[in-house]
Amino acid sequence: DNQHQESTESSKPVHPDWEIPRSSLKLGKILGKGQFGEVRMGELRKRGVTETVAVKTLKASAEERDKEDLIGELDILVTVGRHDNIISLVGACTVGGPLTLVVEYAANGCLKDWLRNNRPKELNKTDDKDIATSGILLPMEQLITFGLDIANGMTHLAAMQCVHRDLAARNVLLGKDLTAKISDFGLSRDIYEESEYVKTTKSQLPIRWIAYESLFYHVYTTQSDVWSFGILLWEIMTMGKQPYGRMTGKELMKLLPGGYRLEKPALCPQDVYEVMKTCWETLPENRPTFPELKATLDRIIQDHR
Ligand code: ADE
């Protein structure tokens, strides 16, 4: 994708319909920091009305690659359109200063933090094998609903020919009623013409979430997002544990071909574990699709009521 090679200092907005005047944006406290830049809370004034938003900007030291990723994220959000389970684009400032992406503010922050903050204290101290018999209760319906929300958003994303490539609890945000919203499309790709994305150059991708064929053959499809979705379900059922614990990425890559996979979390219902396991089938075509995951999780929620 070479259509955005020109500097962002150029005078043409990237998506004129979405361009926001910098003067209408007031920046507030920092919500998150990355190596590329930061996300701040913000206030946007539009026709006399003020809206709380989240504002993503690049550091002055950001590399061309980071800039392209942020423009790419803007492109994806424009293409994908509105969906309750995908963070909405509000607009962007692409001329006359640093590249700035403005998105919907998610009042309950990131899913990973929510899981860790709402984790029963006993879960940290108790030995893993004792947890199952400990009587500790998790907000199970809420947890499975997070999974259902994400499967809903991913169904829409997949229908729009978009592969996310970085689906993980850290990249899911929670709205004011705890609606899960998929976010961080910086690594996402439009696969309209090829149906798969073959990554040619190596870069730091999060190994623990990456599908078998992506790790070994650099092929990314919606079905590799399904693998990551399975890991994300595991994160949810452990209230935010690190997948594969202290194992290194190198060790993991040695074990996956022999069929090694994550174990059932102590408090995870068997039917939910069966779902995540199918997401980790070696062959992408043997994994469920997102619409199938939606239907299955919907049924599981009904069964658990
Ligand atoms: N942290 C990162 N992005 C956010 C957003 N859109 N809303 C709330 N917190 C965030």
TrEMBL record:
Which is an annotated GO molecular function term of this record?
A: transmembrane receptor protein tyrosine kinase activity
* One record GO biological process: cell surface receptor protein tyrosine kinase signaling pathway
Positions in coiled-coil regions? none
Q: Which GO terms describe its cellular component?
A: plasma membrane; receptor complex
Q: Which domain of life is it from?
A: Eukaryota
Q: Which residues bind ATP?
A: 56
Its keywords, alphabetically, are: ATP-binding, Disulfide bond, EGF-like domain, Glycoprotein, Immunoglobulin domain, Kinase, Membrane, Nucleotide-binding, Phosphoprotein, Receptor, Repeat, Signal, Transferase, Transmembrane, Transmembrane helix, Tyrosine-protein kinase
Q: What compartments host this protein?
A: Membrane
Q: Where is this region: Disordered?
A: 1-18
- All copies of the Protein kinase domain together span 25-305
- Functional note: Receptor for basic fibroblast growth factor.
This chain's protein is named: receptor protein-tyrosine kinase
Top-level taxonomy: Eukaryota, Metazoa, Chordata, Cephalochordata, Leptocardii
Originating gene: LOC109462690
